[in-house]
Structures are given as C-alpha cells and as structure tokens.
Design brief:
single chain; about 450 residues; alpha/beta; Aspartate Aminotransferase, domain 2; Aspartate Aminotransferase, domain 1; 2 domains; 8-stranded mixed sheet; 3-stranded antiparallel sheet; 17 helices; binds D-serine
Length: about 450
Amino acid sequence: MQSAKLQQQDPDVFGLIESEEQKQQNKLSMIPSENFASPAVRAALGSVFVNKYAEGYAGKRYYEGNQFTDKLELLCIERMKQVFNLPADWHVNVQPLAGANANLAVYNSLLKPGDTILSMYLPDGGHLSHGWSFPEKEEGGLEAGADDQVYLGGSRKVSIVSKIFNVVQYKVDPKTELFDYAEIRKIAQQYKPQMIISGGTSYPREINYVELASIAKEVGALYMSDVAHEAGLIAAGANKSPVGLADVVTFTTHKTLRGPRGAAIMCRGDLAEKIDFGVFPGLQGGPFEHTIAALTVCLKEAMEPGFKVYAHQVVKNAQRLALGFVKKGYKVVSGGTDKHLVLLDMRKQGFSGRNPAKALDRAGIILNRNSVPHETGSPMNPSGIRMGSPVLTTRGMKEPEMDMIVEWFDRVIKLVAPFANLKTAEFMEATKGITELDDIAAEVKALCAKFPLEF
Ligand code: DSN
C-alpha cells in the first residue's frame, strides 16, 4: 500500500511509522544486531508474497498456486549458495522464521531429547537458543564471579532448549576474555556432548572454527556454528567462514547481512533431508515467502562489490571505536574487536550499563546494556554496554565519525556518572536538568543529517 493510502486508512500506524523513521534518521543506531535494510529489500518485504501459503518445499507444496513462490525460493537458495561460496554438496533451507527457530529446527532434526549440548555460557556472550538455566538460589541474577570455565546450569530452565536437552556451557578465559580451546576440549571430553555450538551475541572476537570442528570430531559430536551476528561479514570475506568445517551453520538475515528479519540453515548435503523435515513439518507451518523475497533481494545486494567494501568498513569502524574507548581509559572486553561489535565493562567506572544506556539514548546514541564476562549483575541490570557499527557504516560513516561518537559517549558518561548508581527512576529524575545531554543530541542529529538514510 502506498503511504498516502496508509495515512488515510490508519493515521495512527502511519504516525508511528513516521516517528520511527525520524528517530532512525536523527539518532545513531548502534545496536550491533540491527541494520538498515534498503528500500528494495523493504519493497519486497511488503510485496504480495505476504498473501501466499506455501507449506512444503519447491515442487512439493501442500497448496496450489505456488508457481512463483517455488521459483522465488529456488532463486533465494541459489543466491545463498553463491554468496556463502558453499561446497557443491552443501544444502540450504531459507524457511526458518527467526534465528531461534533455525536453531530449534536443527536440534529437532539432529538430536534426541536428553542429549547433551555444549554451548557458550550466556553471560559471556552466548544465546538463549543455545540453552539457558539458572541455579535456583540466584532468583534471576547471574552467577557471580565463579572461576570455573564450565557451567552446568540449574533447575530454573529459562529456555526450552534447556528443558529438552542437557546443556553444558563453556566460558571465556577469565583473564583474556577469549575462548580457551584447550579448556573447551577438556570439557568436551568430560561431558561427551552430541552437539557442540559456537556463536552468540557479544563475543567480540573471531571464533576458531577449525579448532572447534576438530574438538567435535574427536568427541563424536556434531558441530553447529551460529553466525547470526557475523553472516554479512563472512559473506564479504571480512570474517572467516565456518562453512565446510561445521556440520551445520545457522544465521539470521537482518544483522550484518542487512536483509529482512529472518533466518537460514546451511548444512552438509547428507543432513539435508533431516534438516528440511525438522523445519517443516517438524517445527513450523507456512514459510514467510515475503521475507524470502526480501532475503533474495538482499543476497543480490551482497553479491555487489560495494557490499565487500561495506563489510570491511564495518570492522574498521568497530575497531576504531574500540581503540577510542581504550585511549579514553574504558575497559574494552578482550581489549578490542575483530568484527562489528564492541563491549565495554562499565564496572571500571563504578556502575552498571543500564542508566548510562538511557542517558546515551537521550543524547541520540542508541545502544544496549549487556552482560560481560564474569558478570556480577543481573540480566535487567548487567555491567556492560554493547554497541556496533553496522548501521553507522550503512550510512557511510567512517573513522572520523567513530572518533566523534567516542567523544560524545565519554561526555555523556562524565555528565551522568555522579547519578549512575541511583535506581533508574531516580536517575532519570536526577539527570532531567542536564541539558548538555540535549545539546549532544542536537550535535548527533547534525552529523546524521550529513549521512542520511534512504527511506
Ligand atoms: N537479540 C539478538 C542480539 O541483540 O544479539 C540476538 O538474538
């Protein structure tokens, strides 16, 4: 529907869309799992494919009228194979509705209830869909300061994955904040998992896929690499690829890949049938063909030379941010980044990430509070701040702009530091009168105007 028609028919929703557009245009979106999809991707997303039911796979649908959805899905798969340079015998499924669904579909395809999964510890940057449970006593808080590099979970099963499987988690080395592969090998030998998983939401370093594949092989486990965050960087060669090393690779399509919200699974050819069955009918009904249409457009964009340049600049920008924060005396987790995200441990400043993130939002810098290695806070009030460069880079920003952002960030933190340990409502009240936060928002807006987003 054209905007004019939407405005006429539903001014409420039209108004909210307008407000969201203005916010995205005038503020710096620095949540590393977000990006800004092109007008072409969004046009395909809003296309008539939204109307079509297509349960099944190309040539084997449960509904008639799928002549064009079949062609679309096959084109999407073909482009995916090209973009990720898949070996001839690898298979692709583009139907998972989201990243967590893609992971569930893999477990559904390849594991039995009660099997052991070895995945990354959630507070060190893992993901809920790789399993998560609390020890009973923690009442929602994170495990404080344990030195063990293995986490066996607890009786409060937060994620369905932990309800179905026995989830053991490996942590980063407490000193380096990096994975210690010798330690992971020992844990794998001890717990003998059926599946090893790598990947997550806030580990700022490249993962050694060769090493994890070899550990999995040694203990007879399958290896699933979840590259939701890095998919675009991998497609462009800015990060290494787990393809051909892992047995299965899953990812979302809206982060560094810059497509619609969705997900995909790529796997060894001999697992194809199981994976397809595990997605449909095993887990989902009709695929979102409008999302697949948008993903197909995004994959064409990813084949263009400009995408390679983009993805490499994403990494350069994140590294410039990390360097800037180190120079200003912030504690950058692991000392830097190899990819699109930077994680700061705000305990060095004497407070958590929650209140500063709110002040930064007011100043026009949108990022998120996040847990950090050796977390002592809770999920709602963790110790870190996570930020990323994908949207900034889509706007065309480069190193000089990253330096400006570090300066603004530091100004905000200094302005609100005296109040940062208050309860959030009190913090908001206490900082209401700090008009310099609004001055910074105006400066941010002026920078954004020089790097406009195309709606
Ligand atoms: N919610 C995503 C993130 O922010 O990293 C992961 O699912």
